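#onboarding

Welcome to the new folks! Below is a worked example of what a typical request in this channel looks like: someone posts a single protein sequence, and someone else replies with the predicted structure as tokens. Don't worry about understanding the tokens yet, we'll cover that in week two.

Example request:
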Amino acid sequence: MPTRYAVSRISTYSADNFGVASVLFELGGMVVIHDPSGCNSTYTTHDEPRWYDHDSLFFISGVTEMEALMGDDDKLIDDVVAAARDFSPRFIVLMSSPVSLMIGTDLPAICRVIEQRSGVPAFSAAPVINSMETYDKGERWAFRLLAEHFVADTKKACCCSWNPAFAANTRTIAPISVNILGVTPLDFGDNGSQLSLRAYLVRNGFRVQSCWSVGTNLEEIATASKADVTLVVADSAIEAAEVLQRRFGIPYVVGVPIGPFLQERIAADLRQAVRSKAAIFSCARYREGTDAATVLIGETVYTASLAAALAQEGLPATVYAPLGSTDGELLAGDKRMETENEFIHALKDVRTVIADPMYQPICPNGTVFIPLPHAGFSGRLYLGDIPNLIDSYSDFAAAVLSGVAKEQP
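Example response:
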């Protein structure tokens, strides 16, 4: 039976409503948390590096104790409608906080009233998003919202897609077009990873159709139905990729192109997915399930992809997934876990840990700890230290292998 520990020593992951805000930040919508105060400053101070140099309509309602007790929904409706009149958002999203959740505010009904009065599409994230879950659940909801409501049903022209019959009868073949789903600062930091993903695809002969949701806009996302295939780089975007597959027949590949080997294989998998119309989990396809002495902790697709890259260096690694995961991402030996107690028990015999620095306090003495900061876990504390492993994998791999070598007897 696992030992029970009463003291909490590690951080918590960013909240689900901040995941929603991160996905929608650049898209011209208005996001409102129905809360007394504080939620917006927590998000902008700790989780959103774009806040100081990018305009975004992110608000709290400022509900007072009396308004909460008396159920004064008219004030919320009037304030949102007035703000919509002033700022002309593309859409409106309302989210609950613990306060509005406890008093049972009917946000879906309020959204219907706001939409009728403002003429702006309004969506309620409640009760799915309630500020009590982790950020990836909020991202999942927001990515799915975009896939279901904002991607236009555009008919593809034959010259815009990879078609063997077309290729056989023409000298010029249009490149395969790719949607990139799952890019947010919470998972990738503010280190230019979205630009590296775009450059990687172009280098390999693809064309980027849309990137969800950094360095993009709603117009670009609306054209996602024209893509031939989707590259999913975070578990939170898989449901959205499934929606695109169901609506438009667009297959998807799951994995982050970390390291030369995986970059080559993901490019091949993207082409294979176009031909087969089937989903491919590249992050798990190129490694073997094992209960290794080296453990990776973090977002599931990212860490599984890094484990696949390290396997090519002769370093097998096990993934411990504290966030959501989908069947096909993890292998035998990998573990899903949620609590600090689970981590403490699982890490007691591990020799090397690669994780956000805030996991180090629960690692046993003598464990080789290699920091890999994760903005969704430690916020701005190590934001400048998050590596762009799409471009700088070799340096990181060398540091990992050096650290592992030092701990060998």
